[in-house]
């Protein structure tokens, strides 16, 4: 199911999960909901992929690229995966799914350019050479990206609570699945695996929010629980973030940043224990300096985490939005190969 052969879809559609009712002065309204768009190929692997966008974006980040090429959703459909693309509560087609949340100001072109082009990356890092157009806020391709971006929840812990509820409900509906998360969408993966450990088969975390215990940015909260702003289940139990004993682990090589890890013996994440996790990092992104800290934290906590640095396998010049860049299919191919190898997947004639 590769190449340019016709893509045969057995089923497609959409729905919302996590819906709660809220009584207002005007009457009852829905809230806390997440939008889910899905496509199921006629022949497929046993586990679907749930794709979770980052930041103030929406699921369309996986549906296509600014220059009009098919996105990662189509790539993985062609490889035989059912694909579920979500808009997190408060974003995209679930914009009113977080009606009670205070939000940041909508991002500006100038702010988003730092993310798109890697302008915040240190000068000694590689330059972004994979964005599919001019590295300028005047570019029409930047228009295509920025038009889909919106504000973020200021109370990140409350947003995570709602996201965890909706994510758990989605997994209850679709069954065991692979989670592919990006950036500020990464807590979805950690929280969903914590809430439904038997239903998460693997996580691919593309430049996840970090480093552990770090700030998410001005006004967006702090990762008090290492990977999340709100609580995860640890063993021995952690009642508050003060129960973590932390130290800075020196950077593994020049050009990287020392990050916080737990003092030995570390608290464990029992619901994520031995869960296959792949953290993916580009060389022209600010995340290049800190993603090793997330891998260190996961491994300390008993998670079977691996780190894929794209430059180490000859893929260079990518920024934080690698799924939108020129070589997005090449990167998706690396993720696909890891999933097949790690989960020993084979395409089956799965009944509808």
Which helices and strands appear, and what pairs or packs with what?
Layout: E1 9-17, E2 20-24, E3 27-31, E4 34-41, E5 49-52, H1 72-78, E6 83-87, H2 109-117, H3 140-146, H4 156-174, E7 177-182, H5 186-195, E8 200-206, E9 246-249, E10 259-262, E11 276-281, H6 291-300, E12 304-309, H7 328-343
Description:
The protein is of the alpha/beta class. The protein has a single domain, classed as 3-Layer(aba) Sandwich (Rossmann fold). It has seven helices and twelve strands. The strands form three sheets. It has an eight-stranded mixed beta sheet with strand order 1-4-6-5-7-8-11-12, with helices on both faces. A two-stranded antiparallel ribbon has the order 2-3. Helix 5 links the parallel strand 7 and strand 8 (200-206). Helix 4 crosses helix 5. The chain is globular and about 55 Å long.
In short:
With 352 residues, this protein is an alpha/beta fold. It has helices at residues 72-78, 109-117, 140-146, 156-174, 186-195, 291-300, 328-343, and strands at 9-17, 20-24, 27-31, 34-41, 49-52, 83-87, 177-182, 200-206, 246-249, 259-262, 276-281, 304-309.
């Amino acid at each position: 199911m590769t190449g340019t052969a016709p893509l045969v879809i057995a089923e497609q559609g959409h729905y919302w999960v996590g819906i709660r009712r809220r009584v207002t002065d005007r009457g009852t309204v829905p809230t806390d909901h997440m939008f889910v768009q899905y496509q199921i190929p006629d022949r497929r692997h046993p586990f679907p992929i749930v794709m979770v966008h980052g930041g103030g974006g929406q699921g369309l980040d996986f549906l296509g690229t600014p220059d009009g090429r098919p996105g990662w959703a189509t790539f993985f459909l062609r490889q035989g995966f059912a694909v579920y693309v979500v808009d997190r509560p408060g974003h995209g087609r679930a914009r009113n799914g977080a009606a009670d949340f205070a939000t940041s100001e909508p991002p500006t072109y100038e702010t988003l350019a730092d993310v798109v082009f890697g302008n915040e990356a240190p000068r000694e890092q590689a330059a972004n050479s994979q964005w599919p157009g001019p590295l300028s806020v005047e570019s029409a391709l930047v228009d295509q990206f920025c038009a889909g971006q919106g504000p973020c929840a200021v109370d990140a812990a409350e947003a995570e609570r709602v996201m965890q509820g909706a994510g758990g409900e989605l997994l209850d509906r679709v069954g065991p699945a692979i989670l592919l998360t990006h950036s500020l969408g990464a807590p979805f993966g950690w929280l969903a695996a914590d809430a439904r450990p038997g239903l998460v088969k693997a996580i691919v975390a593309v430049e996840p929010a970090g480093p552990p215990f770090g700030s998410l940015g001005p006004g967006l909260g702090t990762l008090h629980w290492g990977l999340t702003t709100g609580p995860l289940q640890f063993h021995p139990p952690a009642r508050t973030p003060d129960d973590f004993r932390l130290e800075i682990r020196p950077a593994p090589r020049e050009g990287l940043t020392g990050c916080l890890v737990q003092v030995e013996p570390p608290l464990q994440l029992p619901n994520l224990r031995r869960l296959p996790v792949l953290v993916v990092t580009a060389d022209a992104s600010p995340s290049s300096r800190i993603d090793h800290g997330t891998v260190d934290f996961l491994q300390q906590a008993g998670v079977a985490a691996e780190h894929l640095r794209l430059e180490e396998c000859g893929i260079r010049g990518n920024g934080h939005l690698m799924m939108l860049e020129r070589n997005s299919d090449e990167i998706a191919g690396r993720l696909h190969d890891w999933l097949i190898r790690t989960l020993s997947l084979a395409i089956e004639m799965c009944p509808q």
